[in-house]
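Ticket 4471: requesting a sanity check on a complex prediction with zinc ion. Repro inputs:
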Amino acid sequence: VFLSVGQGDCTLIRHAGAVILVDAGPGDENFDAGSRIIAPKLRSRGVGAVSLLLLTHPDADHIGGLPGLMQFIRIGQIAAPEHFKGHPELMEVFRRANVDIASVLWLERPLAMTHEGMRLDVRLPKYIEGDADNDGSPFVKVELQGMTAVLTGDAGEEVEAMQAVESEWHAQILKAGHHGSAGSTSDVWLAEVKPEAVVASCGLGNRFGHPAEAVVERVRLHGARLFRTDLQGDIAFTPATGGFRVSAQR
Ligand SMILES: [Zn+2]
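Returned structure tokens:
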């Protein structure tokens, strides 16, 4: 479920008792999606605890919701790319959320997990200090009962091109990179993933103009359907005959 959390990301992956979140939504001194949006949405879906939370990169629209979320939802393991260990914003959010940094799973190499027929693959980009935080986002592939989805955080088109060479990323469902910004979800990447559905997670009337018109057009030309959390609410995909079933809930 690509949760509609305003201008930010929070994706819920749920199967056979496992609850995985990718990112914790936006939060700052003015508004906290963690306590105000995500926790109530998880509770209304019957989720009181998360087994694994993967934080893609230390921007406020991905990690800012964590302290508020943790007031209402139990979070088991938190994972984040090792190259962001010590990042000031991330450390500050962990401090506010009372997360012991030693308890975090710092990802240094690809992670593959299976659970009751679900497979989760996390691959890290080549990231060197000084690169944009966005480009340190891990790439995630989820496979469940014939349904496949790929998430790329806020990585830009150069990272997409590198990942396209390194791995096989074909999937029916693709989360548009960087909320549908023009610098992600490139032609090269769309040709690699060959999605049927693309989801842009963005805030209504956001000041960045996400999703960019260029992305809307590229997705259309590649024959995929575009879904938007700002207009349609939570976008949920469920395995079904022939791949998946999609439903939106405002
Ligand atoms: Zn973002």
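Notes from triage: The first strand starts at residue 11 and ends at 15. Leaving this open until the requester confirms.
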